[in-house]
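Write out structure tokens for FAD-containing monooxygenase EthA.
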Amino acid sequence: MESVDVLIVGAGISGIGAAYYLQRDHPGRSYTILESRGATGGTWDLFRYPGIRSDSDLHTFGYEFKPWRDEHAIATADKILAYLRETVDENGIESNIRFHHRVIGAAWSSADARWIVEVEHDGELLRFSANWLFCAGGYYRYDEGFTPEFAGRDRFTGQIVHPQHWPEDLDYTGKKVVIIGSGATAVTLVPSMAKTAGHVTMLQRSPTYVMPVPAKDGFANTARRLLGEDRGYALARRKNIAKQRAVYTFCQRYPSAARWLIRRVNAAKLPAGYPVDEHFSPQYNPWDQRLCAVPDADLFDAISNGSASVVTDRIATFTETGVRLESGRELDADIIVTATGLNVQLFGGITLTVDGEPVDFARTVAYKGIMLSGVPNFAFAFGYTNSSWTLKVGLLCEHFCRLLTHMDEHGFAHVRPELEDPEMATKPLLDFAAGYVQRAVDEIPRQGVHGPWRMTMNYTIDAQVLRNGPVTDPGLRFSSAVPVAVI
């Protein structure tokens, strides 16, 4: 049985970041990353659909410690993947990664101050021992995307594809494509496929807020040229953090004004007389769900030049040749793409026990967005939903390392968050209206309504708490029990 100080689950953007901070701040600690797939990169290696790109700028989606050097702020997956793998190479992280190792479950022993982790590798069951378990596997199932039940699906004689499982040999040249969905994946696919397809139709049940943004950040590129890579990147990062927060705050405080402004921008990018309200004016307020960014207005360009169109309607049934809508209209298709979302799955689907008692995640409460009530020496990485994911992950990793330092200085072997008030009111962990979140809301941890039990989505507040605030708290229970040596 292999024994390490910290076992990191996942070699994507969060796991790579966790490894970097752990090496930097605790070079004497041993760690291993367990990755269920055969490559680093997580999402950016898994998804292969046309045009896949970030929906956040890379000056904030990138790591604070590693400047983003490409001129494109909204970047394609290949560039992001190269950036992540360069981070791995530069810091010697790959030697600590075990590929094709899928974590099944973990059992904590307070007497030993250790996790015993069961892992499946090439059909064999292995066991690892660790003082800390750090889950960095993201928030969705890697092996299965979400597809609702569609009446008549088996009747369709063409090809049905989910973006999470894109066939490498899919040829859509000159073909009629219907993309079901209106989120970030759909608005990425439409302009990319429209370049060579016969025609692409985005079929949505209801509209999503879509906002054109420049693919290149002129300020960032100028700052880098004048100030150098490191200082220019740091300045652009600060500017974009402030900009993201300002946009989100404006939308939350003045939803009517934000709705008017977004509509005005959309209308200016679309042909005269286009039914903007029908296809691009949602019923919900801006940023109640994530705003979809389209670089250089490519979606609107595809609509304007006739290579793509948007239809807002509900599906009655699939037919042999396409889709029949509730309005009676029929959409012919050679290929149907179900860009219908993800299946939320926190912590990689692993099961936990603490001193023999199973952990019901739905009954736990998140502490500072990094630990769970009642679960010792367990940390997880979950980024922002209203800003760049990695901004929060970086702060969480810094706080985790500060917590380890505090435990070393005081001889503590393990720590667990405990609710001071067991009757404290709670609410869903993610206060977010997206369908993929709502489908899983009863299966994931909760958050409190005050103090460290809130799942904050504000970088300024988190920087004060996680980077500069104390690591001790009345909600934390430390123990100085000496762990038993693992043979």
